From TrEMBL:
CDD domains in UniProt: SCP-x_thiolase (cd00829)
UniProt KW keywords: Transferase
Organism annotation: Cryptosporangium aurantiacum
InterPro entries: PKS_Beta-ketoAc_synthase_dom, Thiolase, Thiolase-like, Thiolase_C_2, Thiolase_N
Pfam families: Thiolase_C_1, Thiolase_N
Protein name as it appears in the record: Acetyl-CoA acetyltransferase
Matching SUPFAM superfamilies: Thiolase-like
Coiled coil (UniProt feature): none
Entry annotated with the keyword Glycoprotein: no
């Protein structure tokens, strides 16, 4: 079956943020209930379940809250690409004939602080974080510094990206950070790892998201606005793809893993960057969004400066990116993050994104990068 033979018929979200006293599984339950309502079906109609989480080791145990129907439930984890992986596995269950209706769920509840001093992320000893050494901030800081140097991109471009994210978050009733922050405030915030300041990074938090899929030929039984899965790719690094050099690599090196996943997704979908109307890119930091613009084919290296300055990545621009505020405004509960992207894209393609709506959006693109060294791309269309 082609990827377009699967449709998304319902999405749900538990807003990201901090929820003392509420478990990740309970947040997942809320997201699933919303997705079921969106699809107009009961829990008993779900025939396959794929749940992803970093903190919850058996997230498929969510069936204990939703109902013990005997549904096959499987746990999924591929770092920041978890949401895209659970979506792809649910789709594959439909393609293989294992299910007519399947659900992808992401949920997590992270403690405050940087991801890097958490043993489940890095495997590093406690003293690493206690000494103020944070793997994620160091990694993305070095990566951004190299990229900006190589392509003549000023730090102001990163501040503009961050300000856009917080501005979009202010339009999003589900965002964690809903206060606009100016370019000047972003630049004036403390430098954590040069060139990245405090407001150029996302933070770990809590939340959940879900998507329900079915066979494309059955989609109109459930909704008048199905969204079709055109491509879903996941790639890990090839020998020679040293991520600190990405994406401008020596000729002897392999391309970035994101470039691999993106090219494969465009080929699957039979589409190109010029066909995409609304974009979700992994923005663990503002530098990542800038780098991923080029890696996913939306511009050449260095062109980001003019595009961002001209407002082309804003909601009213030619390349609207992270219309819901992305990771910067929403934070990142790792297991749920990728399905938040899908939630936003489905709402954009259905024309129900409110103040964030991209007029006439028909094709949506989502990219995730994690580990480091794993990338996933999903393309949706009406």
């Amino acid at each position: 079956m082609a990827p377009s033979d699967v449709a998304i018929i319902g999405v749900g979200l538990h807003p990201f943020g901090r929820y003392p006293g509420k478990s990740a599984l309970q947040m997942g339950e809320d997201a699933v209930v919303e997705a079921l309502g969106d699809a107009g079906i009961e829990w008993s109609a779900i025939q396959a379940l794929y749940a992803g989480s970093m903190e919850v080791k058996n997230p498929e145990a969510i069936v204990g809250l939703l109902g013990l129907t005997g549904v096959p439930g499987r746990a999924v984890f591929t770092g920041c690409a978890t949401g895209a992986t659970s979506l792809a596995m649910a789709a594959n269950a439909i393609r293989l004939g294992d299910a007519d209706v399947a659900i992808a769920i992401g949920l997590d509840k992270h403690p405050r602080g940087a991801f890097s001093d958490h043993p489940s992320v890095s495997g590093l000893p406690d003293w690493y974080g206690e000494a103020g050494l944070f793997l994620t901030t160091h990694f993305f800081g070095m990566k951004a510094n190299r990229y900006l140097h190589d392509h003549g991109i000023p730090v102001e471009t990163l501040a503009q990206v961050a300000a856009k994210a917080f501005g979009n978050g202010a339009r999003n009733p589900n965002a964690w950070r809903r206060k606009p922050i100016s370019v000047e405030e972003v630049l004036a915030s403390p430098v954590l790892n040069y060139p990245l300041t405090q407001y150029m990074y996302c933070g770990p938090d809590e939340g959940a998201a879900a998507a329900i899929l079915c066979r494309a030929e059955d989609a109109h039984r459930y909704t008048a606005q199905p969204v079709y899965l055109r491509a879903s790719t996941l790639r890990s690094r090839r020998e020679g793809a040293f991520e600190l050099l990405t994406p401008s690599l020596p000729l002897t090196a392999a391309p970035s893993v994101t470039v691999d996943a993106s090219r494969e997704a465009y080929e699957q979908a039979g589409l190109g960057p010029e066909d995409v109307d609304v974009i979700q890119l992994q923005d663990t930091d503002a530098g990542s969004e800038v780098i991923h613009m080029a890696e996913n084919g939306f511009c050449a290296d260095g062109e980001q400066v003019a595009l961002v300055a001209a407002g082309e990545t804003e909601i009213g621009g030619r390349l609207p990116i992270n219309t819901d505020g992305g990771l910067l405004a929403n934070g990142e509960p790792v297991g749920a993050s990728g399905l938040r992207q899908i939630y936003e894209l489905v709402n954009q393609l259905r024309g129900r994104a409110g103040d964030r709506q991209v007029p006439g959006a028909r094709v949506g693109y989502a990219q995730l990068y994690g580990a480091p060294g794993t990338a996933a791309v999903t393309i949706l269309s009406t």
